[in-house]
Amino acid sequence: QVQLVESGGGLVQPGGSLRVSCAASGFAFSKYLMSWVRQAPGKGLEWVSGISASGGSTTSSDSVKGRFTISRDNAKNTLYLLLNNLPPEDTALYYCLRHSRYLLGKGTLVTVSS
User: Fold this and answer.
1) Is 4 helix (H, G, I), strand (E, B) or coil?
2) Tens of pLDDT along 15-57?
3) What is the DSSP string of 10-70?
4) Model confidence at 1, in pLDDT bands (50, 70, 90)?
5) Cβ distance 105 to 13 under 8 Å?
6) What are phi and psi of 108, to 5 degrees?
7) What average pLDDT is seen over the chain?
8) How distant is the alpha carbon of residue 49 from its chain centre?
9) Using an 8 Å Cβ cutoff, are 113 and 13 in contact?
10) Of 34, 30, 49, 41, which is closest to residue 105 (Cα–Cα)?
11) CB neighbours of 111 closer than 8 A, spacing ≥ 6?
12) Which of 32, 96, 105, 112 sits in a 20 to 30 Å window from 71, CA-based?
């Protein structure tokens, strides 16, 4: 079955860190450009960070640059996002996205609150 399954979300205090993961199955994960996108309460989808198929090139939005790090392990068919120095505004559902032949997971909720 072709799918993306996110995990690792939860409640974290302001200034804290968290790592979310996305397990890919049913397709050749190592051949695809992947991204993380998020949706904050009451807002639309926002692109966060992207990574090339090999993992050799990454890019991030200005809102998270220097705080979030995207990575992948093609041997494990897994995409990661390390979130550091989190303010409450980073509260959102975080989704992983396969760009080509569009595929979106169901998301994992990150809540930043004291």
Assistant:
1) strand
2) 999 999 999 999 999 999 999 999 999 999 999 999 999 999 9
3) EEE-TT--EEEEEEEESS-GGGS-EEEEEE-TTS-EEEEEEE-SSSS-EEE-TTTTTTEEE
4) very high
5) no
6) -135, 135
7) 97
8) 7
9) yes
10) 34
11) 9, 10, 11, 12, 91
12) 112
Q: Is 76 helix (H, G, I), strand (E, B) or coil?
A: coil
Between CA 18 and CA 81, with CA 16 as vertex, the angle to 5 degrees is: 25
Q: What gap in Å lies between CA 49 and CA 17, rounded to an integer?
A: 17
CA distances from 16 to 8, 44, 60, 90, 111 (A): 14, 24, 19, 11, 11
CA proximity to 77, closest of 6, 11, 16, 25? 25
Q: Kindly state the tokens that stand for 12.
A: 């974290």
Q: Which two tokens stand for residue 89?
A: 């505004």
Vertex 48 angle, CA 42 and 52, to 5°: 150
Closest CA to 74 of 104, 31, 103: 31
Site of tokens 């979310």 = 20
Residue 88 is classified by DSSP as: G
